[in-house]
Structures are given as C-alpha cells and as structure tokens.
Amino acid sequence: MQSSGYDWDTTILKNRASGYERSPDGRIRNAEYLDMSQPYSAGSLYSTTEDLYRWDRALYADKALSAKSKEKLYTPALDNYAYGWFVDKQFNRRRISHGGGINGFTTQLARYPDDDACIVVLNNYGGPATGAIARDLAAILFGEKYTLPVERKEVTLDP
Length: 159
Known about the structure:
This protein is of the alpha+beta class. The protein has three helices and nine strands. It has helices at 49-58, 67-73, 130-141; strands at residues 5-6, 20-22, 27-30, 45-46, 86-90, 93-102, 105-112, 117-123, 156-157. The strands form three sheets. It has a four-stranded antiparallel sheet with strand order 5-6-7-8, with helices on both faces. Strands 2-3-9 form a three-stranded mixed sheet, with no helix packed on it. Strands 1-4 form a two-stranded antiparallel ribbon. The protein is globular and about 45 Å long. The termini are far apart.
C-alpha cells in the first residue's frame, strides 16, 4: 500500500483530491478547511481505491493479521460493531463494512468475504450517500432486485 497514510499538513500528495460541498444557497464550493491533526484517525487517513483493494486482499491471508486477530476483528461487541467494522448481512450475505466522512469527502468499504467480493466507494463531494451507492453496486454484483429513488437537483458551479 503505497498511497495510504496519515494526512499531515506537511505531506505533499501527488494527485491529491480536493473536497467539495454544497453552500447554503445550493452552489458547489470548496469544502471548509480542517486541520487533519484534529480528527486524528477518525478522518485523517487518506487512501485510494487500489490501496483499499490491496488491504481487502491482505485480509484473506494471515500475513497482515493472524487468523486469531481477524476473528477478534470481525466479532461484534455492540450493535453489530466490531473492531472498526460493522458486521451484518446484506442481500443474505455476510457483510463487513465501514463508511466515513469529513469535510468534502465520504467513503464506504464493503467486504463480502464469503463471496470474495469488495466494494470501495470514495467520493470528494460530501453530499451523496456512499453507503447507498455501495449497496446499489452490491445489488448489481449479486443480481439482486433493488432500486433506490434518486432525487435529482440542478447543480451550479461557482466560477
């Protein structure tokens, strides 16, 4: 994993994505600045779809984590929440997932280990629901009939 890490303010990242958000008047603008030392691990990590897929692949082997550690990692303690993962079922399949969001960015990683499937959704516009997008992609992947009503809004970009 060469494109993941902690986002220090001094780090120069090639091809860094900018985050965007909707202003109160409905226009798209740059997301409000946030010093990444404030949220720490609850939002200060960066990655790419490729690296997150590598992480998914690594979790099938016992190199990064032992089988015993992974068993603990995926065992829910409270309300389907394990060590950093939600563990539940979706489309009658075991799903291990987590989403996140911070100024201008939202994410969703959904793993279906019994099906050897992984869905990664990274978004640099804080509005759309990445969990719903991941769910809809899983419906397509597994051939499930599921539709989500889509609200369409006209978007105006600031010059």
